[in-house]
Amino acid sequence: MKNAVEVHGPTAPRVPLVLDSPHSGFVFPADMRAAVGEFDLRDGEDCFIDELYRPATERGVALIAAQFPRTYIDPNRHSRDIDLDLLEGGRWPHEHVPSGKAELGKALIWRTLDDGRAIYARRLSVAETEARIANYHAPYQRTLQQWIAATHERFGASFHINCHSMNAVAGTQGEGGAGSERADFVLGDRDGTTCAPGFTAFVQEVLTGMGYRVKINDPYKGVELVRAFSNPAQGRHSLQLEINKRLYMNEATRSKHDGFEGLQKNLLALVDAVLVYTASELRRA
Ligand SMILES: [Zn+2]
User: What's the 284 CA to ligand 1 centre distance in angstroms?
Assistant: First the structure.
């Protein structure tokens, strides 16, 4: 893989909005040595999410996209959220910051797939884990952090949408319980702590106006990337946006369906509306 992270769009902030897609990469590093095949490993992928938002770059919005798969290492986790059950000897020599996701097999490096199957027939060494963090996870988080900081520096505020998609129905280890059906969109602001409540409400209103069913913080509240670099009191706003895969793809074959283009247009309309909103928020400040 050439780069762990790609930034689509401008080379410096032109608008107060930043998008990032941490889970749409699918270039598998050769040293992954998983026990399950790539098709199954891509079950953890937010397929086509970078492509769905790509037209936003024509509006001057930067889109940061991971190139590596989420099942190799998850950029949407704290770098010290180590699953000790996946580690040789079960001991981590650095700080340990467990989020509770290890119990679902979905800490920094996933141990199991959504259906509970083990991803590896081995444990990972500390050196291997450290290398995945240094070469993939750290560059991703650093790139996003720098873009948010540069945007805030230029405009006095930053608005960040963390872009994801979700399976239509939860797997046995999925959030919300097995078999639960998802809404069209789920907005996550970690119970109102990662952005101004008005930003969440605005995005909800725009999507509801397009006819979508939208839920907030149920079952996805947002994880590390909306937490780490946000501070609403200082004008740094981060919101997670989960799109139901059934709106744009066939989950069984992992191909786009007829809904893709319409959704892509609606997401561009959402970005346009958000740019109007952010401009008025900056005038108010
Ligand atoms: Zn995701």
Answer: 33
The tokens for 106 are: 């979905």
How far apart CA 94 and CA 87 sit, in angstroms, is: 13
- Amino acid 1: pLDDT: 72
CA nearest to 268, candidates 62, 55, 58: 55
Parallel, antiparallel or unpaired: strands 17-21 and 62-66: parallel
Which residues pair with residue 50 across a beta bridge?
none
Domain hosting residue 271, numbered range: 5-77+134-284
Domain count, the chain: 1
Q: pTM for the full model?
A: 0.96
What is the whole-number distance in angstroms between the Cα of residue 283 and the centre of ligand 1?
Answer: 33
Closest CA to 188 of 149, 117, 115, 239: 239
Read off the CATH number of the domain in which 181 is found.
3.40.630.40
195-221 per-position pLDDT tens digit: 999 999 999 999 999 999 999 999 999
CA 165 / ligand 1 centre spacing (Å): 6
Residues 6+ apart with CB under 8 A from 4: 66, 67, 68, 135, 136, 139, 140
Return mean pLDDT, the chain: 95
Note whether residue 92 is domain-resident: no
Question: How many angstroms separate the alpha carbon of residue 166 from the centre of ligand 1?
Answer: 7
Residue 83 lies in a domain: no
Domain membership flag for residue 84: no
Query: Is residue 87 included in any domain, yes or no?
Result: no
